[in-house]
C-alpha cells in the first residue's frame, strides 16, 4: 500500500513541476517567474524526499536540506537584485 | 499496529502530494500575480510538511531509524516561506519597468530613494525616522 502511495505521490509532484514550468514559461510579470522558480525548488525537495523513501536510503535528506537553504537564499538574492539593482548593499 | 502505521503513512503521503499539486494548480489557474502568490506559499509548504512527516514515520516504522532531518527541513521551510513571499510581493509592487512593453507597469512605482545625504539602510547609522531606526517612536 505504501509503495502505491509513494508512486502516486511522485506522479503528483512531477505534474506539479510541469505546471510550475508552464507558469515559468508563460508568466506575464517577473514576480510570477520568481514564484514559479521558488515553487519548483520546493517541489524538487519533495521529489528528493520521495526518492529517498522509495530507495529506503536516508542520505538524501542532506541534499534536501541543502537545497532548501540554497533555494531560499537564491530567491531572496533575486528579489533584492530586482528591487535595488544590487545584492549586497 | 503495523497496518495502522501503513494507513497513516499512505494518507500523509497522498495528502502532501495532493496539497503540492493544488498549490501548483493555483499558480497556473489564479488570475493575478498577487493571487498567484497564495497557492505556492501556503498549500505547497503545507504539503511538503505532510510529506516530511510521512517520511519520519516511514523510516521509524520500516527501518527503525530515527531521523530528525525532515523536521529540520520543515521547520526551515515554515520559517522561510513567508519571508520569500513578502520579498516577491515587494518585487511585484515596486518593480521598475525596464523596456519590456508587454509587461505591465508596477503598481507602487520604484522603491523610495533614501532622503537627503542618506544611503541605503544597511550603510546608514540608525537615526529616528529612517529605515534603519530601531527606536520605538
TrEMBL record, chain A:
Family: Belongs to the CPA3 antiporters (TC 2.A.63) subunit F family.
Keywords of this entry: Antiport, Cell membrane, Ion transport, Membrane, Transmembrane, Transmembrane helix, Transport
Subcellular location: Cell membrane
Source taxon at top rank: Bacteria
Lineage summary: Bacteria, Pseudomonadati, Pseudomonadota, Alphaproteobacteria, Sphingomonadales
Primary location class: membrane
InterPro entries on file: MrpF/PhaF-like (IPR007208)
Molecular functions (GO terms): sodium:proton antiporter activity
Membrane topology: Multi-pass membrane protein
Sequence intervals crossing the membrane: 6-22, 34-54, 60-83
Pfam families: MrpF_PhaF
GO cellular component, one term: plasma membrane
Protein name, UniProt field: K+/H+ antiporter subunit F
Record bears the keyword Chaperone: no
UniProtKB/TrEMBL annotation, chain B:
Keywords from the named record: Membrane, Transmembrane, Transmembrane helix
Residues that span the membrane, as ranges: 6-28, 40-59, 71-89
InterPro entries in the cross-refs: PhaG_MnhG_YufB
Membrane among keywords: yes
Molecular-function annotations in GO: sodium:proton antiporter activity
Domain of life: Bacteria
Keyword NADP: no
A Pfam family reported for this protein in Swiss-Prot or TrEMBL: PhaG_MnhG_YufB
Spans annotated as Disordered: 103-137
PANTHER family linked: ANTIPORTER SUBUNIT MNHG2-RELATED
Protein name (Swiss-Prot/TrEMBL): Na+/H+ antiporter subunit G
Organism of origin: Sphingomonas adhaesiva
Amino acid at each position: 500500500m505504501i509503495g502505491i502511495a509513494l508512486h502516486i505521490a511522485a506522479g503528483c509532484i512531477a505534474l506539479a513541476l510541469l505546471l510550475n514550468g508552464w507558469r515559468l514559461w508563460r508568466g506575464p510579470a517577473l514576480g510570477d517567474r520568481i514564484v514559479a522558480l521558488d515553487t519548483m525548488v520546493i517541489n524538487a525537495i519533495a521529489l528528493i524526499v520521495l526518492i529517498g523513501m522509495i530507495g529506503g536510503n536516508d542520505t538524501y535528506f542532506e541534499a534536501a536540506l541543502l537545497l532548501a537553504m540554497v533555494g531560499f537564499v537564491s530567491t531572496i538574492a533575486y528579489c533584492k537584485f530586482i528591487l535595488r539593482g544590487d545584492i549586497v548593499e | 499496529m503495523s497496518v495502522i502505521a501503513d494507513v497513516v503513512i499512505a494518507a500523509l503521503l497522498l495528502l502532501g502530494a495532493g496539497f503540492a499539486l493544488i498549490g501548483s494548480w493555483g499558480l497556473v489557474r489564479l488570475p493575478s500575480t498577487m493571487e498567484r502568490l497564495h497557492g505556492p506559499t501556503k498549500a505547497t509548504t503545507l504539503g511538503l510538511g505532510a510529506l516530511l512527516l510521512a517520511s519520519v514515520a516511514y523510516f521509524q516504522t520500516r527501518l527503525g531509524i530515527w531521523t530528525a532531518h525532515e523536521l529540520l527541513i520543515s521547520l526551515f521551510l515554515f520559517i522561510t516561506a513567508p519571508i520569500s513571499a513578502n520579498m516577491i510581493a515587494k518585487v511585484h509592487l515596486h518593480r521598475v519597468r525596464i523596456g519590456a512593453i508587454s509587461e505591465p507597469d508596477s503598481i507602487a512605482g520604484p522603491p523610495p530613494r533614501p532622503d537627503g545625504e542618506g544611503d541605503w539602510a544597511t550603510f546608514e547609522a540608525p537615526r529616528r525616522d529612517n529605515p534603519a531606526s530601531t527606536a520605538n517612536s
